[in-house]
Every structure is written in C-alpha cells, then in structure tokens.
Amino acid sequence: MRNMLYSGLARSIGFIPQGIAMLAISYLVIHHYGVETFTGYAVIASVMLLIPLNSLGVGASLTQSIAANGVGDEHAVRTGLTASRVLTVSMLFLAIVSTALGLAGVWPELLGDAAGANTFTAIALVIYAMSFVPGLGPSVLLGADRNHVAILGQSLQAPIALALVGVLILGDFSPDWVIVVPALAAFLVNLVTMGLSARLTGFPWARVIARIPSRAKFPGARIRSLSGPMLVTSLCLPIAFLCDRIILSHVSTTAAVADYTVVTQIFAPVTGLIVAGAQPLWPMYTRARARGEAGPNLKAVLAIFMLGTVLVCAVLVAVADRIGTIIGGDEINLGYFLPFVTAVVMCIQAVTYPLAMSLMDPAGARFVAICAVITVPCNITLSILLSERMGAPGPLVSLIIVSTVVQVIPVSIFARRRSRSGEEIALS
Description:
Keywords: Cell membrane, Membrane, Transmembrane, Transmembrane helix. There is one protein chain. The protein has one domain (2-416). Residues 424-428 have low confidence and may be disordered. It is globular and about 60 Å long. Helix content is 77%, strand content 0%. The chain is built from 19 helices and no strands. With 428 residues, it is mainly alpha-helical.
C-alpha cells in the first residue's frame, strides 16, 4: 500500500499547480484569442486522446515484465525493444497520415466546426507522434515501483502548456499556434519522463533505441498475450469515451464544447488522483499472482476510492459554476446539473479503474477488451442522441449509463468470480 500512498501524494502535490495551469490556459486563451481558438485547442487535445496509436497495449507488457522479473532482466529489456519498435512504426504511420490529410486540407471537415486551422492541426499531430516512444517512460517507472516519479513528471504537462501559451501571447503569435501547444507539451514531458526512468531505474533506453532498426540482429520479446487485449482496449475506449468534444462539435454548439471543456478541466484532477492511486495496484497484483497469493482486498480498495471521490466531487460541484464564470465570463455557463453529472462520472471511474488494475493478466485483460468492444457503438450512439437534445451534459449522461451497464457490472461480476488473484476464468 505504500506505493499507492506515494502515488496519491505525488498526485496531490501536482494537483494545485496542474489544476491552476489548466484553468489559467482556458482563461488566457479565451480572453486573449477568443472562444473559437479555445475550442480549437480543446478539440486537438481530444484528438490526441482519441488517437490510440501512442500505446497499442505495448506499454502494459513492458510494465508487466518489469514488475514480474525486474528492470534489469533481459526479457524486460527485450520487451522494451519490441514495444519501441511497435511505437516507432505507429509514429511514422500517424506522421504520414496527418501530413497527407493536412496537404489535402480536410482536417476541419473531419473535426467539425470547432476545429482549428488545417495546417496547424497537421503539425500538432506530427509532434504528438514524436512523443510515442518517449511515452514508454512511465511504463518503466510503474513496473519498477516508481509510479510517483512518473506522476510528478506528467504533472508538468499543464504548467509547460501554460508557459507555451504565455510565450505565444507575449510574442504576439497568431492564434493558430495555440493548436500546437498540447502536442508540444506532451512531447517535452515524455522526454523528461523517459530520462527519469533511465536515471532512476537503470533501464537501458539508449541501448534499446539504438537496436530498434536491427530486428534480425536484436530480436525482441513476444508480448501478444497481454498487449493484444490491451491493444483492443486502447483502440476502443478512447473512441467510446473521449470523442465527446468532437460529437458536440458536430451535433451541438460551440458554447456546448466550451462548457464541456471547462467542466472536465475542473474535474480533471479528480481523474488524475484516481489513476495515480490505482496504478500501483497493477504491479502489486502481478507480484501476488506470481507468488500464488491474493492481492489487496478489492472491496476495501473500492470503498476507499469511492469515499475519497465523493468528498472531493461534492466540493467541486458546489464551486464549479463560479470557477467557470471566472474563467470565461458570460461565455461559460455551467450551472449545477453539468458539474453534477461530471461528478457521477468521476465516481464511476473510482470503481472501474481499480477493478481494471486488479485484472491486469491475460485472462482479465481479455474480458476487459470484450467489454470495451461492446462499449464503443453503445456509447457513441447514445452520446449523439443525447448531445443533440441536452448539449454539453449529453455525452456525460451517456457515459454514466454505458459505463455502468457495460463496464462496472460485468467487470465486477468477473472479478468476484475469481477464487484467488490470477485464477484463469474461461470466457467461452
């Protein structure tokens, strides 16, 4: 449990500067460049989350290998080599496709009325692609029980983005450059985190990267048993859960996109705390299964996560509308219903994320992947229908319904069926 406490503490340390930076970015962009530039910034941030090419499940295999065998184990190094090769191909694919679509001038048509300039959208996604391989740094740190370091490193993203926005404003740059900020901040943070993972754990990143082109001479490890299901999940869940701004951009109004973006920014630190606290459960359950032991008491873990989330969200619901007014003035109107449904989504995450961390073995990952495949059409269809009628709350209400029915209930039943941690359960 010590690693969970360290991770939670690290997230808490980064909570205030990260939250302030995110809200300050919204304030500066809205007041200096306007709501249209802000929605373009929000849409490109969503596109980055939607594109599932930055992990492809390979980071999970790297974490699993390091947790089970140690960071200096040859199998772990070969797993890192395979993961890096996969993400190098992914990087090249996204860079080529993004450039081609930019040259064709179709990005605004693909992303809707709230999208930013075509050329700068293409540039942003090329920069984002460059962050894929460095993005394996947190996977190494998590497997080596240094997740709190990864969290502290990742918490720099919003402050770096704020600094970049400040440079654009002071330098009187075109508002189109704002679109590049999320991608550039992500790239810089991933480089820092990769460097920290090499220095603190001794993982030989320089050797791994040098061997990427020499596949015949330096073979990697087979990682399909876990990375395959994780790939399916990484492809499905972003599409199912993170395309809300794009759906709103197409079927609702620019104001709805702005309101949705601000309220999710206000609650984003809650998600960060949930993820930070739950991630150390992964190597804990992995080591327990390797020793034939039971992991932490899941009911107690879920109760702690739920209680903490409810307390934090109650405060945020009370102050969210006022914060929105401070950020955007009359342009942002959150009320109480929109923050309330966002808080319910946070409570659902407080259940689903620890559950998922307790199932990080091939059998558990396969079941989670099956749920993810079912989730995609359900959530997208319901989000479109509800967004047309409700505006900004629509995607969140859809998320509550679909997550409960397709994620929380079946995954809870699956986890409860295990007589001990790591027991295989037939899925047929």
